[in-house]
Structures are given as C-alpha cells and as structure tokens.
Amino acid sequence: MKKRISVLLIMALLTMAALGGCAGGTDISSGDNSSVESQTGSTDGSSEDNASAASQAESSESSQPQAGSPVYGGSIVVGIQQDVDSLDPHKATAAGTKEILFNIFEGLVKPDENGDLMNALASDYTISEDGLVYTFTLREGVKFHNGNTVTAQDVKYSLDRASGLLDGTPLISSLSVLTSVDILDEKTVQVTVGSANTELIYSFVAAIIPAGSGEEESGTPIGTGPFSFVSYKPQEGVVIAKNADYWQEGLPYLDEVNFKIVNSPDTALLELKGGSIQIYPYLTDSQANELKDSFQILSAPSDVVQALFLNNAVEPLNDVRVRQAICYALDLDMVNEFVAGGGATLVSSAMLPTLQTYYVDLTDTYGSGANIQKAQELMADAGFPDGFDLEITVPSNYEYHMQTAEVVAEQLKAAGINATINPVEWSSWLSDCYTDRNYQSTISGITSDMTPGYLTNRFQTDSKKNFVNFASDAYDEAYQNAAAALDPAEKAEYYKQVQKILCDEAGSAFIQVPPITIAMDPKLAGYKFYPVYVQDMSTVYYTEQ
C-alpha cells in the first residue's frame, strides 16, 4: 500500500464526497476528538457508489454562483454560535472550535472539499502490507507561524502527545493504538501501531505543533495553517490573520478573518442585514427564505445526525419499551418539512447515508410518520398507560434545534407524553448534558468524519462519549468486530449490525441528517463545503465588482 492508502480507502473517500460541513449549529466532542453537534472509513465502494457521490458533489458545486475575478486582501466577519472551549488542538472538545482551528493547524494529512485525503505536512506516505507501520515523508520548507521550520522532532512530539505515548494520557483516542513514533531521518517519521485498522489513516489529521509547546498552545496557538492566531476574547470571538508563508501557493486570499460569537439567531439575522457579518453558516429554512433576496444562500448535505437523545440511565427512559414508544410517536416527515423545508434526509440510527457501503436504511422500523397507537401500547405495557413527563433540554442559541424541539414536543404530547422544553446556555448544555450526563432528553446532533466508526463508536457501553448511557453487549460485540475487520464486505456487514441494534433498542430517537445552509455576502466567493465540520477561509475571497 502506498501513499493514497489503498483502493479500499480511496473508495471510502469518494463515497463521502457529497457531505459538507455541519448544519444548524456547533458541535462538541469528548476529549478523544469525536464530535457531537448541539444544533460533536474505508470502503470498497462500487463504481456506482462513486459515480453517485461525484454527481452529488458536482451538484453542490454548481449551485454556487459564478463570481468575478478573485481579489487579494480585505477582512470578513464570520458568525459562529458558541465560544471556543480550548485553543489547544489536541484538547479542543467543541467541533465549533474545530471549525476555527482548521484554519490555524494542519496534520500530516487533511481532508479536501471533495472528500479526499490530501497530503498536508507530509508530502508522501506509505503503509506496510500488514497495516502496522506508517511511514511519512515531511514536506520541504513548511514553517510554523513563529517562523520555525517544521521538523521530524515536531511531528514525533505531536503524535506522542496526542496518542498518550508522551505521558500516558491519550488526547485523541483513535491514536492510542500507536506503540512508537520513530525518527528515521530529518525528513522521515515512522509510526508503528499495535493493530491494523483501515480507518486509522484519517486520525493523522491531528495537528502538528512545535516540539515542547503543548501547554502553551491553549494561550498562544502556533500551527502551520493558512491563517495565524491573532487574538481571542471570551464570549466575543477569535481573530486570525493571513499566513504569508503558507506552503500552498496562492492561499489564502483574505488578510484577516474575525470569527464572531453570535448567541442569538435573531441577532445573527440583524447583523447579517446590517452588514456586520458577511458569512453565517447555520440557517434554518425560514431564515434562508428571509435572506435569499439580499444574500447568496448556499446549501449542501451536512455531516450531522440529529436526534432526540435519550438518557438510557434515567427513568422511565431506562425501559426500552418507553424509548421505542418515543420513536413511534415522532412524525419525522413533519420535522423535516417544518425545520428543513423538506431538505433533510431521515435516519433511524447513527450513520450517514452518504457512507453508502456501510449504511442501512432502517426508517421502516418506526416509520417516518407518527404511530400513536403503537406508542401508547408500548407505554401501557411499560406501566405508563397515562403517559409520563419528559424534559427536553436544548441549547437556546441553536435555532435549528430549538425549532426541532418545538415540533417534537407537540408530537409527543399527542401520544400522552408531557414534553417540556428546557432552553439552556451552551456552556450549561456542555457541562450538564454532555459531560455530566445530568439530563433526561436533549435535541442535538453528532458529527462525523470520513469513517463509519466515528459516529458509532460513541455508543459502546464504556465509551467516554456515550452521553446517552446506552448499554448493549450485542452492540459492543458488533462494533468491536466492525473495527477489527479488514475484509471490506465483513466490515460493512458488522457496521450494519451495529446500526440495527442501536435502532431496535432505541438508544435514542434519531431524526435526520440536516442540510447545511449558509448566507454569504454577494461580494464574496470561493466558499467550499467539506465532508467534515470546518469553515475553510483560505479559499474565500472578495470579487471584482
């Protein structure tokens, strides 16, 4: 296997080409670098799958308006919906933070807008036939933002730190399989892993930072990306400036980007209309309609699975019949129409449909419309013939989730479930719901990368990311089999088993993959949708008018 991984991995990337960004809000992840959104693989896909993905990508690209010639210079303000949790790229838990850090940091490889892994700080790499040894050749002349050239020592330090080899504490769980990082010469680094995993190459997007700088990164982040860090003010935002020494010739165009925190959807609309924000990436269908006459409205499939997440450890949600009743009570078609204008894709488990080789359509399990009779039968069987109270905690700064919660609450009441919405600040949601698991139910979303395991690994019983407290021996076994499988057909079958178990046991009430819809100033062009949740400002530019 050489450089472009293998045919197996290339097909996985092509299959993901239709994905783009994160819709309707900002994502968070646990400290092991997997995200959940509060709105934080490999495949041998057939030529038909690849053609489908390419067609979708082409459709998304063609929807962007034709622009004039690019102009270098200028600054823009991008609206974001939450404060950053850490500027240290190995410790950042919020995918909303990572959308910013993508512009500051780079790994040995990085995703591009088509769903391919491109060489970044590595100019080349090989993977041994047994999948246990990765050898990276460093790109010549890449500089950190402090002016120092990236060395093999920097790469070793970064991977040792992220994997736990440095101090025994893995900061990125998928890299915990690394057993050694060795410098072969000044331009070559060899990484050895304890077990083969065809999805591991994607983890080498982990940021490379200067050797020894780890604890300084949270205050003064230093990377190699197209923009360098300028300033951060809590509850206000992050300012980044053009990296004149960036290794990709011709990029970036803009001199400065200000990521401004806008907690209220109403405030975001006012600032867009007033011209104080040029890009805002989290529109609902109603907001897009309100702005369509004065802004470019761009849309693409997201990398988010939205759900009514159910805390399986609290009563009455610890009864599978109650969780199933909730699933039957939901009218997913209505949610889609009301919140996404019919533009979302319905799902009933934790997998993106664009991962076609691994995805299995399970929407018939509970149906896309409400089955009130079945819901009431299950509740009566569980001992709740008169229904029960259900609190839905929602981060109030995410209009997409707030609107979803309004529809869901009314649908549950029709089945006898007294649902009330508890709007909270993002910081409270992060600490109470995600970290402490102190909630009953919540509307949010989980984001994916380009591997099938990214979404599904969080539902393992002992996963630190398992904020719904889902516990299933059958699920754990199927997931471990999927992760270990090297045969593509076998891996796909296990991942389908994983989805079915999660659906049948109603680990949560999965709803949809929302579209990501952005408003952009008509004077701007070059915005790209990605298969992961990022805001790449390197290709955005003003046009000659």
Structural features, described:
This protein is an alpha+beta fold and 545 residues long. The chain has helices at residues 7-15, 47-62, 95-101, 152-163, 265-274, 285-291, 320-329, 332-340, 372-381, 399-414, 426-435, 453-456, 473-484, 488-504, and strands spanning 26-29, 35-38, 70-71, 75-80, 109-111, 117-119, 122-127, 133-138, 178-185, 188-193, 227-233, 237-242, 256-261, 279-280, 296-301, 304-310, 345-346, 388-395, 417-424, 441-447, 509-513, 515-520, 524-525, 541-543. The strands form 6 sheets. Strands 1, 2, 16, 17, 18, 19, 20 and 21 form an 8-stranded mixed sheet that branches. The protein has a 4-stranded mixed sheet with strand order 4-13-12-11, with no helix packed on it.
